[in-house]
Amino acid sequence: MSSTASRKRVIFCDFDGTITVNDNIIAIIKHFNPPGWEAIVEDILAQRISIRQGVGDLFRLLPTSRKDEVIQYGISNVRIREGFAELLAKCAELDIEFYVTSGGIDFFVYPVLEQFGIPRDHIYCNGSSFEGEQIEITWPNPCDSHCTNDCGMCKTTIMRRFPADRYERILIGDSVTDFEGAKQADLVFSRSQLTVKCNELGLPHIEFESFLPIVDYLSDERMAAR
């Protein structure tokens, strides 16, 4: 691996529970409270079922007759974590490529991020279909041949498009969807379950609650000299 000084920095940032204060998928399901959702969430978090299967099963509990309610709640429920706009401004200033790699769903991810001017081709998330009787999640970013975790939105597949010999890969995340990506990253900013997993695996990481310390870290001369 070449020195970080000769590589371009790129950030892969999770959405639910990272850019947002809350986990929007869980919030939507909890709000509409269809029977059986708790057991599915427990299976996802315990990694007894894949993320793709679990998220698909959760939204299949919701009828498409409630489409407008689900979309409106998904958008209005979002609370953006402190310092996100400042992080984007710092990335632009330092010429750091910024990608949103989200296990979230297009009907709330795109509208929420639109206000921040992030190009759609820098946002990776899952899709949705309201054509049948139940809401179906679609998976435009599946695992490549190097991943067998059935991620749904495979973050490591996206990261592999940025080879480690040319990019210093920085991951910002919080949960089970970020575990595999953290193993590939040069640097991890973590919170919640991701911090626990980084400690278990001995992965170098820096904990955060607000984005503002991350902005400071990226500005630091020691970071610039990495």
Give an overview in words.
A seven-stranded mixed β-sheet has the order 4-3-2-1-5-6-7, sandwiched between helices. The longest helix has 11 residues, at 84-94. The chain has 226 residues and is an alpha/beta fold. It is globular, with a radius of gyration of 17 Å. The two termini are 13 Å apart. It is built from twelve helices and seven strands.
What is CATH's topology name?
A: Rossmann fold
The level of helicity is: 40-55%
CATH superfamily: HAD superfamily/HAD-like
Count the domains: 1
* CATH class type: Alpha Beta
- Write the element-wise H/E pattern from the N-terminal end onward: EHHHHHHEHEEHEHEHEHH
State the low-pLDDT regions, or none: none
Number of strands: 7
Give the N-to-C terminal Cα separation.
Answer: 13 Å
The shape is globular
Biggest sheet record: 7 strands, mixed
- What average pLDDT do the residues reach? 94
Described by its quaternary structure, the protein is single chain
Percentage of residues in DSSP E strands: 15-25%
SS class = alpha/beta
**Rounded radius of gyration (Å):** 17 Å
- The CATH architecture can be given as 3-Layer(aba) Sandwich
The largest sheet has its strands arranged as 4-3-2-1-5-6-7
Output the keywords.
226 residues, alpha/beta, Rossmann fold, 7-stranded mixed sheet, 12 helices
